[in-house]
Amino acid sequence: MDRKHLRGADVVLLPGARTGRDPARSIKPGPRRLPAGVVAATQRDRLLDGLVRTVAERGYQHATISDICRAAGVTRPVFYELFNGKEDAFLAAHRHGTGVVIRRMAAAFAAESDWCRGIWKALGAMLQLLAGTPAFATMAVIEIEAVGPAGRRERAQLLTRFRSFFAEVPQLPGGVGSKEMVDAVVGGVYSAIYRRIDSGRTEQLLELLPLLSLFCLSPFLGPAEAAERLGVRDWPKRVADW
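RESULT FIELD:
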């Protein structure tokens, strides 16, 4: 990953961080009405927030478009002006939110000159974002399975983007394939995050940071060197200081 192009972290909130009916985003009628493009963008953002919160609460299968519109304070005709249906809106929310996560991770990674510390910081940025927006974490990690083939494709594309953080891994001895090892590590990280969210402990995700960091580095450096490079022998203090 080219660190020179990863310096600008955005401050965009994840979908679901706000209520769809947030008064600050109300659209007032009248002669001073906002431009059509601004109105559409605001309504779209509200629908994404409404969808994330509704899906997190009711599950993808049981969330209806009427439920989503009600949560967003937006009418059904407007919904269909912006999205083809529930699946289309779900995938839009997933792509937007995971894009925010990846960009925040990339900026944290790029701020470190050392690959090991970059992995630590990137993982910390991801865990912090998900822990701070539990509705999005549930929607994006758990409910994506209910979407079917389109959801599985989105998840596969997301995991491919995660692999880019391992472009600098050392070559493994004995002809062991680094690519296969990276695939296994990325899958393991996703699985650990999934289990924590599925068990209702999303707000405790940051507790996984030392363990996941070691898990990412140990296959390539060995456990002892990975721990030394990360300085994680005082795990509780490290997590508290993050």
